[in-house]
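Input sequence (230 aa), recorded before submission:
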Amino acid sequence: MKRLCLLLLTVQMLALPAVAQDVFVGCLDEELTRQQETFAGFLTLDFENDRDMALANLFRLGAIYQSMALDCGYQPNHAEVKVMLEQVLDYASLDDLIAAQSVGADVDEILLELETIYGDPLTGQLLYNGLEPALGGSPLGCAGCHENEAIAPLTAGTWTRINDIRLNLRQFANYSQRQFLVESIVRPMDYITPDYAAVMPEFYGGQLTIQQLADLVAFLDSQDQLLQGE
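Predicted structure, token format:
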């Protein structure tokens, strides 16, 4: 819920000048006071001389102050959460909300974020098999293809194939197991497994949160079965 409440605030903060991006280093009373005075002094409210800028600064100050309170532990009550949700929905579509929470397709950025996330392989298995919804409430279609070897490489042995075969290819010489998996999910057209058609959709980066992607990667990391013939 907090992530959703902060969505519009995050969008608002993107418009702030660089000076105002050095945000919230502490929640001690004196530090909060210093931050409040700094932002108020920088984002001035001179309605008489520049009403448009004053309104913009008023809006930005509100966003900053709400973020400060949330970052320091304030829990909005039901009425406040309702107001924030209504504000978000007034200015953002459901597609916007989903996009704001999705991992996207920047593999380097995703890998950095994954360093701080614990992936749950059991939840990843549910996602993979369409038993747990992805963003927007739709199930993923992974198992539908990867349980049929005529369509896509089998789920069983995923980790083993990557480790024993894929990472030995020259183009993946500097790849980690995780990098290969992430790229395969969010940018599947970058590498097509030999003898298979390019049928995997490229929209999964827009259907997964960073936590869901971490869970999927954890599940696929558990697929270390021996390859056929070994």
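Checked by second reader. Residues 1-24 have pLDDT under 50 and may be disordered.
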